[in-house]
Design goal:
558 residues; alpha/beta; 6-stranded mixed beta sheet; 5-stranded mixed beta sheet; 14 strands
Length: 558
Amino acid sequence: MTAWPPIDRDDLRKARGDAGFDTVLPLLIRRLIAETASGLESLDMPGGSGTAVGGFDGLVTASGPSAFVPEGTSVWELSVGGGNSKAEDDYEKRIKGPKGLATQDVTYVEVVLDTWRDARTWSARHTEDGRWREVRGYNLDGIDLWLEQAPATTAWLADRLGKAQPGVRSLESWWTDIWLRSTRIPLDRVVVLAGREKAAADFSALLSTGRSVITLGGDLRPDEVCAFVAAALEQEGILGATQVGARVLFVSDKHGIEQLVTQRQPLILVLADPALARDIPQQQPHQLVWAAMPGAPCNVKVPRLHSQVIESLLLSNGMPSERAARLGALGRRSLLALRRALAHHPEPLTPERASTLDVVRRRLLLLNSWNGDNREDRRVVGQCSGLEYEGLQERARELAAGSDIPFLGHQEGIWHVLAAEDAWALLGTSLTSDDLQFFRTAVLEVLTETDPTLDLDRGERWKAGVMGVRRSFSHTLRAGLAQSLALLGTLGADLRGPEGVTGDRWARLLVRDLLKQANADDTYSLWRSLGDVLTLLAEAAPEEFIETLGEGLSLDRS
């Protein structure tokens, strides 16, 4: 386990001598200011060889004091070396304040990333000059001390120096260096937020309230959670060296989260897995963001992408219209599947399980979700997988603890395929005729169960749970099967079922048979019992749904 902090004074001293580090120093100081300033109002500190207003290396305004960033307006001069002579040269040239301000109303800060042993006496002597309100000098040791109070900037710098903390990364760096560079056509904010602009605004608003935990709905994988958060912050103009953006880290390692939560400086931690938060103390200063389980309550629901926006982007980059339309539809189903399709190197983005399919994974893909505490769910899952449930449960635990991207998620007895649409994009074409036959049997048994609460008087139905009146199968299993039907109906064109029938046609026939049973019920009980999954059935087979619904309405029930 790497100790915290991952870099120390010696790393900083070595880095200052590296070619090009003089262009990194402004970025470092800018992030330190953004992360630790109190009431930061403005920060003008260009990277590289740029200069701020008045020719200074930096111009900062803060409404409150902090250990390293003065209250009010301050001007900054930065250098990787030169010691006392460099500091003196800078000071002698600076005799006017920025933007017409009197120098007596401005603090002057000299940063020399060197041993500069005279920094304190130099600062005190020039403060006494009275030219500036105050003069400060920060040397190598001062910046090292400052980094101790800025864990997010420390993680950012460690990554740049090749000493990254395992499983900890600046979200901005991840977005610019990994996500945007991974595809031949960058999947930028416009794509990631296509149809999600309101969800992004809602997320940013929640974040600004200081809420300690924010959960994102929509069955998102870790990379999509990160991309959404990064794009949302970019939409608000606060990704990067701002008081929000500079504090955001992506965490995927247990030891990393254990070390970060002990830091006093408030952080925004985007977790790859909610389980990482299991042992975090209730009283801690950080904000946590993670993906909610499918169907579980969430703070922000992240909808599907708009395919037209994706298609337009691809067309503008010269892609043929037919391929652009196909990838636009793929992106609506799964952003990560679209990323793989456009990746420079798709292999690292493809889960190991895609090449190691077996009957259990294929059948669980079709079942999609179930309640492990429900006896009838357990029976159906066991029958479909060909295993006794106890053995199936052990296999499910293995699939939930995969070495790369887990296939299953598990929380409080509920099991579900993670990112089902992406899983179907990867694995759906591997389904066999036998798999579909088992699926058909499960669908017809589970979804034709009528809701026993319908036999109660309307005024008594609210007490059904207390009275023990409930379906034999859980809503989790019903919804999982119905979602798989919808996915089979929309993604199954390349799949061959029994007698060569395509997967999408198989789904339509299955929905038709199910709804014909509903029409055969003179009491309409089955139609009413299907109310919780009707939208998914319509998505799986829209024409068959409308046709059988019309047939049912035309029947004479007298």
